[in-house]
Write the structure tokens for this entry.
Amino acid sequence: MSKPVYGKNAVQLKHNDRTTGGGWLLAAVFILFLGWAPFQRGLFNSQQLIFEKPLFVSALVCCLMLFGWVGLYYKKFKLQEQSDLLVLAAFMLPIIYALTLFVAVSYYSAMNMLFIQTMYAAVFIISFYLLKHEKVNFAIQQAVLSIAYIIVWFGLLNWLGSGKLAGSLVGWFTKEVVNGTYNGALITDSNGLRLTSIFQYANTYAAFLMAFLFVALFALVRSKKGYGWLLHGFMLVPIIVSMLLTLSRGGLVMMPVVFILLLLFLKSVQQILWIIHLGISGLASLVIVSPVTNLGISLNTDFTSSSALKGWGYLLGASLLTAGLSWVVQRYLAPWLRGKLDGENSRKLNGMWIPLGSVALVGIIAFLLIGTGVRSILPDHIEVRLENINFKQHSVLERITFYKDAVKVIKDNPVLGIGGSGWQAVFGQYQNNPYVSHQVHNFFLQYLIEVGIVGFVAFMSFILYIFYKYIRGYAARKQDEFSNGFFYLIIALSILVHSLLDFNMSYAFMGILVFLGMAGMAVVMDSKPLRRNWNKAGVRYGYLAFLTAGAVFMLVLSITYISSNNAGNKARQLFSVSQSYDELKAPLVKALKKRPGHPESTIYLSSLDQQVYSQTQNEQFLEESHTLLTTALKREPYDKELLKQLVSYYDLKNQSDLALMVYHDNANKYNWDIDWYSTLISRSLMVGEQALNLKDDAAKQKYFTIGLQAYDHVTAGVEHLKTLPPEQLQGNPFSVTPLIALNAGKIKFMMGEVQEATDILKQALSADYADVTNREIARWYLAALKKNGGQDQAVHDLLIAADAQEAARIDEILAKQY
């Protein structure tokens, strides 16, 4: 890579560039799909009913495009070169996910991932053939860049108080516009107001912006026309400002890493030009980011036209200035640099020196912004985010914890993994502390968890082969800027590198961009003729037949799932307006007929049946509820809400022992859910008391032991949390609550372990005797003391002062035989 070639002596691609009308139609549909998809929350795979439909619609569209591809290319489809085999390999990716259905911890989540992987395979195959045509390749590059620029301005419209306008522009083709504004384009968390645009997640938006910042730089430098210099130069400031407004530390950390990696591919002239343009736009962005930030925050609280115009004035003014300077650089400086550094002179400034110098420059800038007062030029909340960039910062420590816990999952399920999106189901069983993260925050680890070593090796072989062969071809061949595939390398590399720290690929639109990028690289990669004859008619047509059959299957499945989703969402809406059992039940029955065991629809219908049973005492409704739940739990054994619904069923059946065992048998799945353990201890006390009253000593011992084991688990967890680094947040609350201490103390007392009961209850004492639970703790504490011949006069006096009847209640406890 020390002598990369960039932008001279164009060599035509190894195929005829004639594009049929059908080819252009397929390209147009593909571009429209790329324009529609990001505004559906980026096609986020959230495992929730309300997020599902766009994924299924996307899979349907991709299957239809795949049919179009088969129709257009079945005569031209050949397997003559190494790159041609990638089309076969791409379809292996959804097959791997199909295999994991047999071991999936959540069939529902695994099926959603199968749709997504099918979509990725279709995008790769279609793109691979479309991008072989230079004019289509050019059109797709321009379309992708235009869509990215639209997304940037869409986000800034929301930031500068024009959310209604932004919503009106996209509301006609997306349901994400609620009350006139795009849902979640801005979010407020502990860090302040953050720009998220279409993704509703700031870090993924930062990854997107990072990728297209570098694409814009590439487009600016490769352009031969003045309007290209002005357009792409104009967009640099909005992209950088948007990135700062996300408050994403991961984006700021990974941006220089990706930038330096990309510089390694460029000749010295391009390296210098990239650095100059980024420096100009970066300085302009830093000058205006403070007023733009403050105006955006105020505009989203109290909109005024004057403030909005002021904000746009800063942004557009800096953008115009940068565009003008970009034009000057490209018009005058770039030709001079080429004259000085191209040809023989380029050897004097080897392509490695500038990237190495950039590393030093990045280090200096990072030191100034993080380690000195220079960062004070930034808005307060951006300054705080920069100040907190260090390896002891809580988000870094939390990610390290996620990764360690992910390795535990992999060790237990090394071969085929646990199925698509399985981490969301099982993380409670493996987590080190009570964090809540439905994502591993590392795409590669999450992929390894989902498909195991076998699937991971296949996937990594696929992408690494493309990167390796592309880099070899890029360094060895001379192609023009539109044909060398570097546009696509930037997109794929940027997103994948950032995905080492976050779950960008859980947004299927980001995954689509990655597979589009890999297809663009595969088209121009170093590709030799195949040694063996793969181009036999049987192999080619067999693959096409297999591909078509798979596409037909997924198409039918997509239609089925869309229908089920529509029915499920209709039921959700009816629950807030209807009291009719038949009206509420009908769409849920339809939803579950098409997708048996769907968790949300199952919970809605089983809950409805249980409510009707409570009113009518008709056992038919209760048994239907039980059938629904057991069917769903076979596919979703980790679904907490389904398990709680099953507990409700046993409660209605007056089978409190079976309800307790649901909590006990599944406690290891939710090791840090304090509510689960609190309920488990409470129920073990209740069921144990029932056995005690029935004189069933064996049952009493069994159930009380369950409760004490749960209590020991909680206390051990509390001690473990003390070992966390002080900078790391523990996550959800996890402690011995007053109710847990009370119930554990009662169990100890009833088992005759009076001293242990005294110790537990004493630690939970509180001065708030107006609280019922605290009075009960004091009551049992005094009873335990008195049982052993002791007394705590101070607590006794405070308790009696709060309620004079407590003395009699203490005597009742002592009088009862346990």
